[in-house]
């Protein structure tokens, strides 16, 4: 992020008669990027309707498996463009308060491609840090952001990735981090059907992580403990169960190249893994919750061909252990994706790239479908 000039800070101070003295010890910073994505997709078994978010970026659970004719689609958007603001205020005790607000335009439901292509901004991160403490919305402590591969797709190796941003209170000391984070339960109805999203939790999600770093890279282990709860007075359902998960990840530097690895497994991982490809639990005939076991992982290698050219090859997978007597045969059993790209940066801030991805999704019934996607992107960071 770039620091705003002293002149700008002085102009800001003129508009803040109350508490303006704080600006004397505060640095302001900004950053972000503009990004254009052009995406051509081919689906072997069905299609995604106009406006479906799965056409903007890869979501494993949205690969069509309808068993009808193949289809193609072309989309262009600049919705991933991002802006962030930050402050750092030095205190008399030698410590500092830092804040960060970050927004983009992805995943917002209100927008159209008919005339103005307008989309509402959304909060990605809104956090403050003091000493070893973080308060606000940020990346989940259960996620190792540093292991996300460099892809043109919004996420990339989505199938086996832990990917969550949410409100939290986190304490970090060296390589250790512990946090309480916002809970949410996703449930499959008995026999299958539309996802139930329940906000009936009585306790937060608990996360602990340890990361060991060296000149060679880093390795990190995280654990998740949470409650899955659902109440429905109309159906006389009121049940809670405990869910657990583990995530092991590493980044290994090989000269300028790097190898990224992640493996995740647990009972009731649900929304934490693969963008909620499987729910955290399923209801049985008695209205009781049963956790769904799931495993996922990724491997990615990035190679620098020169100072300006680089490529990443990544593979990601997801597997769910569904009890089909409860979930039905239409629950997603597995997904995987393979992608390769070539990126060119004539200057560090400007990048052009092309990326090919092949993805597969299979249901418990054996019905499956494939997606082939070619993406071009242009990105300028500031």
From TrEMBL:
<feature type="signal peptide">
    <location>
        <begin position="1"/>
        <end position="20"/>
    </location>
</feature>
<keyword id="KW-0732">Signal</keyword>
<protein>
    <recommendedName>
        <fullName>Porin</fullName>
    </recommendedName>
</protein>
<dbReference type="InterPro" id="IPR045748">
    <property type="entry name" value="DcaP"/>
</dbReference>
<dbReference type="InterPro" id="IPR023614">
    <property type="entry name" value="Porin_dom_sf"/>
</dbReference>
<dbReference type="Pfam" id="PF19577">
    <property type="entry name" value="DcaP"/>
</dbReference>
């Amino acid at each position: 992020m770039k620091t705003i000039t002293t002149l700008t800070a002085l102009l800001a101070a003129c508009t803040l008669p109350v508490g303006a003295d704080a600006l004397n010890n505060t640095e302001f910073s900004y950053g972000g990027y503009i990004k254009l994505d052009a995406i051509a997709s081919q689906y072997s078994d069905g299609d995604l309707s106009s406006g479906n978010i799965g056409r903007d970026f890869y979501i494993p659970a949205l690969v069509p498996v309808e068993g009808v004719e193949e289809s193609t689609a072309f989309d262009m958007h600049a919705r991933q463009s991002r802006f962030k603001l930050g402050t750092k205020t030095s205190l008399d005790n030698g410590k500092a308060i830092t804040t960060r607000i970050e927004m983009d335009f992805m995943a917002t439901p209100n927008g159209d491609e008919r005339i103005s292509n307008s989309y509402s901004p959304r909060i990605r991160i809104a956090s403050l840090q003091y000493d070893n403490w973080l308060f606000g919305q940020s990346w989940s402590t259960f996620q190792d952001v540093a292991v996300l591969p460099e892809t043109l797709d919004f996420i990339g190796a989505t199938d086996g990735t832990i990917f969550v941003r949410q409100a939290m209170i986190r304490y970090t000391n060296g390589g250790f981090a512990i946090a309480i984070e916002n809970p949410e339960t996703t449930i499959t109805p008995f026999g299958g059907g539309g996802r139930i999203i329940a906000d009936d939790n009585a306790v937060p999600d608990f996360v602990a992580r340890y990361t060991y770093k060296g000149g060679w890279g880093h390795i990190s282990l995280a654990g998740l403990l949470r409650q899955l709860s659902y109440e429905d007075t109309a159906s006389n359902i009121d049940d809670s169960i405990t869910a657990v998960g583990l995530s092991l990840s590493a980044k290994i530097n090989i000269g300028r190249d790097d190898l990224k690895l992640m493996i995740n497994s647990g009972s009731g991982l649900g929304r934490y893994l693969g963008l909620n490809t499987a729910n955290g639990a399923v209801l049985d005939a008695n209205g009781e919750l049963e956790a769904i076991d799931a495993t996922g992982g990724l491997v990615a290698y990035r190679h620098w061909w020169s100072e300006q050219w680089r490529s990443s090859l990544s593979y990601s997978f997801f597997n769910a252990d569904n009890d089909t007597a409860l979930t039905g045969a239409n629950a997603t059993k597995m997904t995987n994706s393979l992608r390769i790209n070539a990126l060119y940066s004539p200057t560090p801030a400007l990048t052009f790239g092309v990326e090919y991805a092949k993805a597969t999704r299979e249901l418990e019934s054996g019905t499956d479908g494939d997606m082939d996607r070619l993406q071009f992107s242009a990105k300028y960071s500031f």
